[in-house]
Amino acid sequence: MDPRLRWAERVLGGFRHMRVLELGPLEGMHSYMLEHGGAREILAIEAHPRAFLRCLCVKEMLGLQRVRFGFGDFRSYLEENPERYSLIVASGVLYHQRDPWRLLELMGLRSDRIFLWTHYYDHARIREQAHLRQRFQPPFRRRFGDVLVEGAVQSYGEALQIPGFCGGTAAQSVWLTRRSIVALLWSYGFRKIRSGYHEADHPNGPALAIVAGK
Description:
- By secondary structure, the chain is α/β, with parallel strands linked by helices.
- 32% of the residues lie in helices and 29% in strands.
- The strands form 2 sheets. A 7-stranded mixed beta sheet has the order 3-2-1-4-5-10-9, sandwiched between helices. The chain has a 3-stranded antiparallel beta sheet with strand order 6-7-8.
- Helix 2 (29-36) links the parallel strand 1 (19-23) and strand 2 (41-46).
């Protein structure tokens, strides 16, 4: 079982009786953990056909009763559906977004508690690794309201041609700095922010987990 979600469960005081929205379940492991943690209802939305089929297989093989897998764009769902959830789980999806600030804002509109695991942009760390360095454009700074956001655009390149690719649905995405992610969460009303599983030397780029609440 994923220790990052176990950590989030401890920080949150458990998942019991929660209505959970999961963004990008991939193969359904977190969905399984959420159900067995006592969540009342889990809606997990996956955009990649192969990953969605894996989720359906996991649901049948493990007999999941309180998980519903949806196929489609979770961004569209968040934009168009005003439902609110006890918790939003977004593991491995923020760094695949072209405008991650908007995804954080949408999550803040739909829930008072979120769990994130994401890679983030650290110029010095990424410059040290050739396989990462070549994917990124020069870093940028942009202001969103009172928040100065820093990050860089990355390109998937040839990875898009790999049959098992499960990244973003566009050719490029934006990685935000760790400080920018926290600042945006704060600006969207999350005043209780805890981080864990900080992996500055992760082979695919610096990463960390965040539990944020209002």
